Amino acid sequence: MSVRKLKPITPGQRFRVVNGFDAITTDKPEKSLLAPKKRSGGRNSQGKMTMRYKGGGHKRRYRIIDFKRDKQGVPATVATIEYDPNRTAFIALVNYQDGEKRYVIAQNGLQVGQNIVSGSGVAPEIGNAMPLSDIPLGTIISCIELRPGQGAVMARSAGSFAQLMARDGKFATVKLPSGEVRMILVNCMATIGAISNSDHQLIVGGKAGRTRWLGRRPRTRPVAMNPVDHPMGGGEGRSSGGHPRSRKGLPAKGFRTRSKTKASNKYIVERRKK
User: Fold this and answer.
1) CA neighbours closer than 13 Å in the CB half-sphere of residue 109
2) Which parts form a coiled-coil structure per UniProt (predicted)?
3) What whole-number distance in Å separates Cα of residue 96 and Cα of residue 271?
């Protein structure tokens, strides 16, 4: 994987850095795994804006991803590595031996023609999904379940990975991408390897329009608002805004908002770094 810096032939391309898409093998998605994707523009069922700075953007179709990896013991061959407009990671189309096709999140180093399999007792190789009880300690993992059978919810974005640290009884200790160390049930599934497209963090839009293509509208700075609109608004001239806080008045930048009585607190061994 690599990134490309464009020649500054227009002002919008002067600082733009784009993905090289070296790993991508096709630009045509599998039709049977596409679904329509309705956009709300940040409005609720009454038509009122409940989420600001959303709307516009390029039309997309959703790729149905297999996050559960519940087809166990059946080997599958990687047919293509594809771009997915709905996520930062690349996806892989896999053909199972019984003829079924599915999309899975592509791991770093996954190659076309490679065989992957999920289930208990499989080899801990890149792309294989298995319970945490079968994975060797110290292994880099991704696409981790939080509850058995729920499907992958953690470490799914481009370049992210977690590490299996220890096992004790029915719990495994996993260091997550945020730095948090957490206990997860050993019968939860995880996939071996880090997520693909690790160069995503190096991409630079280069112009405001490219952010609009992604469906994000311009954000108004709180300091530029009036006091009626935001706690940091108002003041004579260009005032600094005072203590950083949200629109609802909650302090930002370091203020901990996690509930002290949350049931899952007992599973967190070490909190994420500030």
Assistant:
1) 9
2) none
3) 40
Integer Cα distance of 147 and 62 in angstroms: 24
Amino acid at 229: D
Residues 199-252 pLDDT 10s:
999 999 999 999 999 999 999 999 999 999 999 999 999 898 899 999 999 999
Give the global pTM. 0.93
- Secondary structure string (H, E, C) spanning 89-156: CCEEEEEECCCCEEEEECECCCCCCCEECECCCCCCCCCCEEECCCCCCCCEEECECCCCCCCCCECC
CB 158, CB 177: distance < 8 Å? no
Using CA atoms, how far apart are residues 71 and 104, in angstroms rounded to an integer? Answer: 12
Give the confidence band of 1 by pLDDT, cuts at 50, 70, 90. Answer: low
Cβ atoms < 10 Å from Cβ of 135: 23
Q: Which of 151, 86, 87 is nearest to 118 (CA)?
A: 151
Alpha carbon distance 178, 163 (integer Å): 11
